TrEMBL record, chain A:
Keywords: Cell membrane, Membrane, Transmembrane, Transmembrane helix, Transport. Belongs to the binding-protein-dependent transport system permease family. CysTW subfamily. It holds the Pfam family BPD_transp_1. The chain crosses the membrane at residues 16-44, 74-99, 111-130, 150-173, 194-215, 249-269. This is ABC transporter permease. It is a multi-pass membrane protein. Its main location: membrane. It comes from Amycolatopsis mongoliensis. Residues 75-270 form the ABC transmembrane type-1 domain.
UniProtKB/TrEMBL annotation, chain B:
Keywords: Cell membrane, Membrane, Transmembrane, Transmembrane helix, Transport. The keyword Transport applies. The lineage of its organism: Bacteria, Bacillati, Actinomycetota, Actinomycetes, Pseudonocardiales. It holds the Pfam family BPD_transp_1. It is a multi-pass membrane protein. It comes from Amycolatopsis mongoliensis. One of its GO terms (biological process) is transmembrane transport. Belongs to the binding-protein-dependent transport system permease family. CysTW subfamily. It comes from the Bacteria. The keyword Transmembrane helix applies. SUPFAM superfamilies: MetI-like. This is ABC transporter permease. PANTHER family: PUTRESCINE TRANSPORT SYSTEM PERMEASE PROTEIN POTI.
Length: 279, 265
């Protein structure tokens, strides 16, 4: 045991290799491998009669995805909903996080963080369902209710992902020294100017970190849409229906590459902001 | 300054009210005698609660959820901690791609993770879906939760105490057992609790990776949501989940203690 320990101590490279081996094998093989396989499957198709996957390379699935007006509409609708949900959450979350981080006492901060985190773990479905019952004809919000549809979907998704936006922004504001805000005020800046020139640039990575969750979670959602979305579909529904009812795994894989590409582009774009360290 | 203070407090209060109102509606509806859940409720009953406690399907699904959650958490604890040590203590070529790889399972939509693993298991590897495949899927996106908690703790505790231990002649294993691990323990517990909670609530990935005929609690809820005579029982299960979920959140928050923001996910 001692000899082994000493051996490892003298060989930091070996230690690093040992530490990285298992996580990399798992994520590299199980996850990246699966993603790569998914991408490959997207070029296959299913036999119209047997429903079996046929291993034959073609771009047919992608052609359908890009030329069929239905899928184009659904793609734009999904990205639009995800973007809108992200903006709504950022606008609601920022003042909340600011009050938590800069106005509340340390004790109140702890309680508030717990208050924000609790609903995060209180079942996704329960919350989506709560909105369904509130938006329904005789529900608590029946008089204001837009009915089931895109608006209801946006409301529900914004509600579901709000804590994912509040917490990173709160963490970002918590790290922002008060002295910078005070200094800005001492130099004569009004509240809005301080916000625009000091607070916002310094907390931008945190906002982007939050947006990764709200955007990604909205892009892939199909359950909230089923519960409150009425007849309007999102990309997730197309994937789900093709895997289940239609039993067309290759086409589901093709559709699933859309959110992957969007997210990878988004992640690459925000890398420089340092948002990934704020997750 | 005064007005902006008032405005900010108001925003926080309103926001919290909006966050909690739907949850209160669910709690209230679990006692609502009216099965269509008209609002406001006019009559109250305990019938749904008594029927829920003897609901076989829900109890069975609960057990499956616990099994999957515990197994996924155990795997995530080991892998997440190893990755955290590697990335926090070493500088090496490819460090950034590795850290990206760890966050990818939560950064990509759940449906992508779900269908990718579904496809890999069924089409590529030819494995039947079961509890094990769901556990593998859950562990994959839980790693990042443990990773984040452990990295935050390692960053804060530095390496001085470990170096002192080594200088005093302790071997690497002894140092880990007596110095490093005790300092990490609460971070591991917090990360583990959050990983369990994440696994417990996950539905999209589970839908695609759990074998047919098996149900976790979220899937049971989903299956029964639209059945009129089951909906009241779903409300009870939901109400229990809302109340029970405060426990792990509170504990994780206490345990990750150091900074209020540490270990949020």
């Amino acid at each position: 045991m001692t000899a082994l320990s000493a051996f490892f101590y003298r060989k930091p490279k070996l230690r690093l290799g040992f530490l990285l081996s298992a996580p990399l094998l798992w994520l590299g093989l199980a996850y990246l491998g699966a993603l790569a396989a998914l991408f490959v499957t997207a070029f296959w198709h299913t036999d119209a009669f047997t429903g079996q996957v046929v291993i034959e390379w073609s771009l047919d699935n992608f052609t359908t995805l890009f030329t069929d007006a239905v899928y184009r509409t659904i793609t734009f609708r999904t990205v639009g909903i995800a973007a809108l949900v992200t903006v709504i959450d950022a606008v609601i979350a920022f003042p909340m996080a600011f009050a938590m981080a800069k106005l509340a006492s340390p004790r109140a901060q702890r309680i508030l963080v717990i208050a924000i985190m609790t609903p995060l773990w209180a079942s996704y479905l329960v919350k989506a369902y709560a909105w369904r019952s509130m938006l329904s004809g005789n529900g608590a919000l029946s008089r204001l209710s837009p009915g089931y549809g895109v608006t209801a979907t946006i409301i529900t998704l914004s509600y579901l992902w709000l804590p994912y936006m509040i917490l990173p922004i709160y963490a970002g504001l918590d790290r922002l020294p008060d002295s910078l805000v005070d200094a800005s005020g001492d130099l004569g800046a009004k509240s809005f100017r301080t916000f625009r020139s000091v607070i916002l640039p310094l907390t931008f990575p945190a906002i982007v970190a939050g947006s990764i969750f709200t955007f990604s979670l909205s892009l892939g959602d199909y359950i909230a849409v089923k519960i409150v979305g009425g007849t309007s579909q999102m990309l997730g529904n197309v994937v789900y229906d093709n895997i289940g009812a239609a039993n067309n795994l290759p086409f589901a894989a093709t559709v699933a590459t859309v959110p992957v590409v969007i997210m990878l582009v988004y992640l690459a774009a925000v890398r420089r902001t340092g948002a990934l360290d704020n997750l | 300054m005064r007005t902006s203070r008032v405005l900010l407090w108001t925003a926080l209060g309103l926001g919290l009210a909006v966050i909690y109102f739907p949850l209160l509606v669910v709690l209230l509806n679990s006692f609502n005698a009216d099965t269509t859940f008209g609002f406001p409720p006019t009559r109250f009953t305990l019938e749904w609660w008594s029927r829920a406690t003897s609901n076989e399907g829900a109890l069975h699904a609960l057990w499956t959820s616990v099994e999957a959650g515990l197994a996924a958490t155990a795997i995530a604890l080991v892998l997440g901690t190893m990755a955290a040590f590697a990335l926090q203590r070493y500088r090496f070529f490819g460090r950034n791609p590795v850290s990206l790889l760890i966050i990818l399972p939560i950064a990509l939509p759940g449906i992508v993770t779900g269908i990718a693993l579904n496809n890999a298991f069924r089409t590529i590897l030819g494995i039947d879906l079961g509890l094990l495949t769901a556990i593998i899927a859950h562990a994959t996106f839980c790693i990042v939760v443990v990773f984040n908690n452990v990295v935050a703790r390692l960053r804060r505790m530095g390496g001085n105490l470990e170096e002192a231990s080594m200088d005093l002649g302790a071997t690497g294993f002894t140092t880990f057992r007596l110095v490093t691990f005790p300092m990490l323990r609460s971070a591991l517990l917090a990360g583990g609790l959050l990983a369990f909670a994440l696994s417990f609530d996950e539905i999209i990935v589970t839908t695609f990776t759990l074998g047919t005929g098996m149900e976790t609690l979220p899937i049971w809820i989903y299956d029964n949501l639209f059945r009129p005579n089951q909906a009241p029982i779903v409300n009870v299960v939901a109400a229990v989940l809302i109340v029970v979920s405060t426990v792990p959140v509170y504990l994780a928050q206490r345990l990750s203690g150091d900074s209020a923001s540490g270990g949020r996910l």
